[in-house]
Structure formats: structure tokens, C-alpha cells
Amino acid sequence: xxxxxxxxxxxxxGGLKAVDAxxxxxxxxxxxxxxxxxxxxxxxxxxxxxxxxxxxxxRIFFEDQDITEEPPYDIAKLxxxxxxxxxxxxxxxxxxxxxxxxxxxxxxxxxxxELLFLPSVRANEKVHRRRVEQxxxxxxxxxxxxxxxxxxxxxxxKVIELARALCSEPKLILLDEPSSGLxxxxxxxxxxxxxxxxxxxxxxxxxxxxxxxxxxxxxxRVIALNYGRVLAMGSPAEVQQHPDxxxxxxxx
Amino acid sequence: MRFxxxxxxxDDIKLFPHSGYxxxxxxxxxxxxxxxxxxSSYLMSQLVxxxxxxxxxxxxxxxxxxxxxxSLGHAAFLAIGAYTAAYLQEYNVPFPVxxxxxxxxxxxxxxxxxxxxxxxxxxxxxxxTISFALxxxxxxxxxxxxxxxNEGMRVKALSLLGVTVPRDSPTFYYLCLAVLVLTIVGTxxxxxxxxGRAFVAIRDSETAARSMGVNVALYKVKSFAIxxxxxxxxxxxxxxxxxxISPEMFTLQLxxxxxxxxxxxxxxxxxGAVLGAIFIVMIDPFLTxxxxxxxxxxxxxAAAFGAGPATAGSIQSSVAAFASLNGLKGAIYGIIIVLFVxxxxxxxxxxxxxxxxxxxxxxxxKRATFKRQKIYVKSERNR
Lengths: 252, 383
Description:
Shape of chain B: globular
Strand order of the largest sheet of chain B: 1-4
Strand order of the largest sheet of chain A: 6-7-8-3-9-10
Radius of gyration of chain B: 23 Å
Radius of gyration of chain A: 19 Å
Oligomer: heterodimer
Number of strands of chain B: 4
Shape of chain A: globular
Order of helices and strands of chain A: EEEHEEHEHHHHEHEHEEHH
Order of helices and strands of chain B: HHHHHHHEEEHHHHEHHHHH
Largest sheet of chain A: 6 strands, mixed
Distance between the termini of chain A: 37 Å
Number of helices of chain A: 10
Strand content of chain B: under 5%
Helix content of chain A: 40-55%
């Protein structure tokens, strides 16, 4: 049994088949990249997994549990975190409170306890704060702790979004174009972090990416999509030489 | 300028970042405690209204400022609190019981309003809350067996532990102050714990909040319930302060006044609720003063510029006629809102922060410090 599995996943908008009977599996501790031209359905697959869209048909399994019908907020509780292609941070809050929202799935305190800020709440807050600090250290975000998101540059926001996802201590992380908008140096950092996430934090990574150098550096396996269908699956080199993939990118 | 050197995670959690805050808020509290012995009874009465309005302002800030759900129905929540108190008082229910009962009932009704609000955002939510307020107003006028309809209800002076507390006594003021302070402390506690952060997350990006495990629907309803419950508690005090309540006191105009409280005070901090409450309570006597004295003053100026007694008299009467126009107050409120939104979007508290920073950084203050820049446009919003 695979760690994470999508079976015949489809998403149709009327006649448009954004995702068409896609099946794939992710093994524990693997870094799997999804590549494909614009509109191939990569982000749609992520949105299906995090339940922003409801699949037209097909099923999703995580740790041998069918999660197709789980409500969206429970996906995070199961240990699946994600980042967004166009950065969805909490703009008018500080970096720290953004990261602390990432800890939401671990909060156990009740409303009345929070109103009184009982010692249990305080103790919990310190645990959250410590965990957040570990992520800040992991991603070198020390200079930005108390800054508002709205004043930060794009590259930093991208890292903060990754940090927020890591704060939830996920087992599986979905990265939607982690390197988009980053310069070469920042992309290099990102590739180290993605590998460290797997080796140091034991997180399984599923990512959508356009930058082939990043894909080649970090991925164990690659899936190529076009028009919602799987074209090829295998090692980065295999997929890049696959005739259908070449045709999809360069034209027949 | 003070640089905070944080050495403990506690430094990020505690309410007062440094000792300066403790000193200044301590002085403020001491002044508020001795106020009944220093201020005239008129000012004391205004101060009680400031406390009540500020409590409602804090409630509205939780909902609008921090959860991002606009409401023009808070006069209705205030009314429900006030009428619950007046009704239960007729059956000799003791004050603590009907005080809490009013909060509980309003909270439950707030949650019920929150459910339909789950599907509505922005202007549609505002319309829904207005309709709710109009429905409540109508019920208050028609349900005569409970509310006595348009005749209104008398509210007796409250009695606490067997002692009667008249509405203009210092004890009543202390009670209102205590409710305000406890509300603020409770709200601050909420804001530094997971629930408060979930509220802010919903305000800024529902999609991201959901993907981080926040049950958006549940927290929106929670926010509505908490906000309504606090407003209900303020409603009890409001009823006692006025000693008489009738449906026409809880109109849309009152809801708009509450919106003014937070818009003018500043929607990003609880300070805004208090500053806005001071503003709204003090502007009323100021407008009355203008209405009574302006015609005479303008006529006097006209006379000084050589206008004859007849011309001055006609100027005075036409200005007086203008000043007593129906709806002028609403128009002035409208102008104030527009001016603040255009020129002081961060409100009075924002202005205070700017002044403070100006002196802290003198002479290096830059006007653009508080300018919000929006460079990155979100193209794909998954609602």
C-alpha cells in the first residue's frame, strides 16, 4: 500500500476536463514532482487534494484512509499542509502570527480557557512559540519575526508560506511552484530546504514546479501532465526524454 | 526610542511589552477611578456612555476588525440585551442573573445570525445584518405582551447584593468601567490565543485559513456569537443608564454610530474602540452647541462686517433654520465617515501612533511610514 494515493481522479468544469482520470502514488519519504505546461491541471490536483475543489470522480487515500470526503479543514489535521502558487498569507498580520496560525491544528484549548488565558493556554502558547522558532531557524527567517507581511518582498513571503506549512508539522507537504518568482540564489536555497525537509524532518514532498533545474536536483520521481492526463511517470531523466513530454513542451 | 530585547518566549505573549505600558495604563486607570470625585455629574454621565459605547466598539472590532465580517445590526443585539434585562427585571430576577442571561441569549441569537452569514461576504453581509436589525426593531414594536410595543419599558435602578445602584451613582460608573476593562482584557486574551489568530486568518485569506486547519464556518459563527454576547451585556447597562427603553432607540442610526466608533477610532486595535467611543459621545453635545450658538455667532460676524440689524437677523434665522434641519446630524456623520476613510484610514489611534513615532524618530520621521503598499495582486482567489 502506498503512503498517498490518487485513483482515477477527475475534475470536470462542464465539458472542460481539468483533471482526467489521473492516478499516482507517493511513497513515504519521497519527493515527487508534477510538471506540465500551463493549464495541464497541476494546481487543480493540489486543489483537489486540499479539498478546495470536490473531485468529479475518483478517490484519494492517505495512510490507507479514504480522505475524498473529508472537509477541507480536516485535511490539515490529517497532516497534509500546502503552499499556494500566488502566496496566500495573512497580509495584515505579523510573520509570527502567520506562522502560529500554522500551529492551529495542534491547538487544544477551549474558548473559555482562552478568554481567561489560563495557565494551560499560556503553556500551550509557549510550546507553539518554541516550535515556530525551530521553523524560523530552519528557514533563516530570524530578521522578520515581528514584521508585517504587507511590507515584505516576494521572495521572503514565499519562504514564510513554506514556513507556515512546516509549522503545522505535516507528514505530507504540497508545494505549489515553490520557486516561482525567486532568483537563482533563492531557488538554490529552496532546493536545499526541500531536501532537508525530507531528510531532517521526515516529510514526504509532492510539488508542482516549472523550473526543471530544481526538479532535477530534488525529485526522486516526476509525473508529466498535459490536458489533465498523465503523459509519463518515472525518474527526472526518463520523463524528460519521453517523446510525449517533448512533444507537449516543444510541439510535435 | 526604546528597543525591546526579547530573551524569553514569554516576551511575545505578555499583554504589556514593557514597563512603560504598565505605568501609563496604571495612571490612566487611577485617573478613571478618581474621576467621579473630580468631574461634574454631566461629564460622569458622558463617561458612562463612553464605557458602554466602547464595550460595543470592542465587540464590533472582534467581528469586523479582526474577523472581517461587517455588521450593521449591532443596535439589534444591544436592544435584545436591553429588553432581556427589562423583561426579567419585571419578574424580580436578580441583576447578576439577568445580566448573564442577556449576554447568553444575545450570544445565541448572534450565532443564529452567523449561520446565514456564512454564505455572504462584503456588502451582502451588511444588507443581511441590516435586515436582521429591522426585523428585531419590528418585533420590539409589535410583541406588546413582552416589550409593551412603542410605549417602551421602564427600567428600574439595578440592585446589586441588596444595594440599589442609581444610574448616576459612582458605583454604576465603576460597574460600566469594570465591564469595559474585563471585555478588553478578555478580547486581548482571545487575540493572543489560537481562536483570535484564526479570526485574523479568516479576515485575510479564507482559503489559507482553511488549508491550515481552521474550520472557517465554526469560527465565523463563534465570532458572531462572542461579538453579540458582549453587545448584549452592554445593552443591559445601556437600559439601566437610560432607565427607559423603546424600539425607536435601537434604529439603524445607532448601528451606524457603532460603525463610526470603530471606523474613526481605528479598526486594527482595541484602542480604536475607546477613542471612537469618546469621539461619538462627545460629538453630540458639540453639535448641539453648534446648533444653539452658531446662528448668533454668524449673525454677530455679519454685523461686525457692517450688515444692518435686519440683514443680521435674517441671516441668524436662516442659519438657525438650516441647523435644525431634519437629518442634518446623519449627514454630518456621513461626511465624517467619508473624510476619515479618505484621509485617516487608520483612524484616531493610527493618528496617535503617527504622532508618537514622529517624536520618537525626530527629526527622521517619514510620512510614508504608515502607507500600505500593495504590489502583489492575487490573481487566483479560491473562494
